Amino acid sequence: MTEYDNYDVVVLGGGPGGYTAAFRAADLGLSVLLVEREERLGGVCLNVGCIPSKTLLYAAGLIEKTLTFSGKGVTFAPPVIDIVALGAHRNEVVSKLTDGLSALAKARKITVLRGIGSLASAHELRVETVNGAVTVPFKNLIVSVGSRPSKLPNFPDDERIWDSTDALALKFIPKRLLIIGGGIIGLEMATVYHALGSKITVVEMKDQLIPPADADLVKPLYRKLKKEFEDILLSTQVTDVKAGTAGLEVTFKGASGEKISQYDAILVAVGRRSNADSINIQKAGIELDKRSFIEVNERMETGVSGIYAIGDVTGEPMLAHKATHQAKTAAEVIAGHPAAFAALTIPSVAYTHPEIAWMGLTEREAAEKNIAFSRAEFPWAASGRALSSLASAGFTKALFDPDTDRLLGAGIVGDNAGELIAEAVLALEMGADYRDISLTVHAHPTLSETFAFAAEIADGSITDILNPAK
Ligand code: FAD
Using N-to-C axis directions, what is the helix angle for 16-27 and 83-107, rounded to 10°? Predict the structure, then answer.
């Protein structure tokens, strides 16, 4: 017997998945041991992901707004940027949240064991703590060890080559910054460093920024960034990086041949890799797929009795809100509830300026799977709220089932798209058709009206613009 015997649930990893699972299990009356290797709970999302990035993006947004408003009656002095103070503010936001998690864990009487856990068998964890290794037997284990940034092979080992954690650390503001990877994380960090004064180049292997999003949603962002950034190289790969004293010399290969350029720093943002390959999970009889993901069913069960997996280790989309919902399911299943993670959609948001958000069916997916849909798009140039807040470059689109009129998918590009998409997610989950949405009274003037207007277009009852159906 050790002090760690006899917990109803052991949770490995204290990120959004792990702490949510632990809290829900405790609230359902189960005794919980939470194993986390870092000093602070919260995982990637709170410490080096969602929260610090959104804190810096907020600052970037303020800088941008002051510039766009100049000449319209209020002119601001150029911003004075102090990255030490900005970093302190970011840390304060993160600490408030992570300290809150520790307090919530304590209040729920959850035992938090600091150490690096790995599987010893299908019934035991081995945890390396500062006081040596301990064995933790378990009846139920929830694996939530998350993910880490993917690396590119053959890059020099140089402190000017960053991953997202380095970029969030605000070590310095490079004069010329190359972002490898035009996905969400790469573009969010590009937005931050552009506002702080770096000249940005983004290089993306595919022919579009944010490749999973529909091309029309990305277009307004692309147009804006093309003007603001030094360069955006699509369908282009980095084939070589040489570290010199004057900078990092990068060779690109694209459709127009080879080119060489020098940068002061490089952010590699080419995706993330599951940490399930670092916990000896095979010792429990669980096999990983090619990207080290763990396969689970709707109840978050792996193939091995008593072992559950949640969050980034279970595959794409690697998002905090997927992890927290899966976490509740796993805790409820262990507590004997008839729970399942059966969300119809998991929304995606790029917190760029403008923001891009989408949910449900995309036009790309519809084309691939030959799914019929009708499409309605409301341009924000016709929204009073968008015009008054200088956000008229966006639009809201909705896809409907031509037979049932039900909502199939939606996409929004513009200010607050990440907030606005929630209504579409709810509409999809509730099986709403375009009449349900258009007959719902939306406050005026709000950006939320644009979703109702898209439904009115589908219904043929729109009055704010000429009816495209007529
Ligand atoms: P993690 O958050 O990775 O947590 C895993 C935890 O397990 C960590 O605390 C880790 O220390 C611990 N751990 C790992 N191995 C061991 C071990 N062997 N023993 C003990 N502990 C271990 N998602 C969004 O939804 N919205 C966003 O805006 C967003 N922005 C992001 C921005 C950036 C820059 C990055 C990098 C990610 C962002 N994400 C965002 C993704 C989000 O952070 C992840 O999807 C989320 O954190 C996954 O939660 P998780 O619990 O599965 O794993």
Answer: 30
pLDDT tens for residues 152-197?
998 999 999 999 999 999 999 999 999 999 999 999 999 999 999 9
In angstroms, rounded to a whole number, what is the distance separating the alpha carbons of residues 349 and 54?
Answer: 12
Q: Which atom of ligand 1 is nearest to the CA of 167?
A: 34
Q: How far apart are CA 220 and CA 201, in angstroms?
A: 18
Residues labelled catalytic:
444
The Cα 87–Cα 196 span in angstroms is 13
Q: What tokens appear for 6 in the block?
A: 């006899």
37 lines ligand 1 (CB under 6 A): yes
How far is 102 from 39, CA to CA, in rounded Å?
10
Atom 29 of ligand 1, nearest CA residue: 50
3-state DSSP assignment of residue 241: strand
Q: Is the CB of 275 under 6 A from ligand 1?
A: yes
Long-range contacts made by residues 48-53, C-beta under 8 angstroms, separation at least 24? 48/164, 48/165, 48/168, 49/164, 49/320, 50/320, 51/93, 51/94, 51/97, 52/90, 52/93, 52/94, 52/168, 53/164, 53/168, 53/185, 53/188, 53/189, 53/192, 53/351
Q: Whose CA is nearest to atom 33 of ligand 1?
A: 49
- CA 170/CA 312 separation, integer angstroms: 25
Phi/psi for 263 (5° steps) reads -130, 160
Ligand 1 proximity of 428 Cβ (cutoff 6 Å) = no
User: Ligand 1, atom 27: nearest CA belongs to which residue?
Assistant: 50
Q: Note the pLDDT tens digit of each residue in 295-333.
A: 999 999 999 999 999 999 999 999 999 999 999 999 999
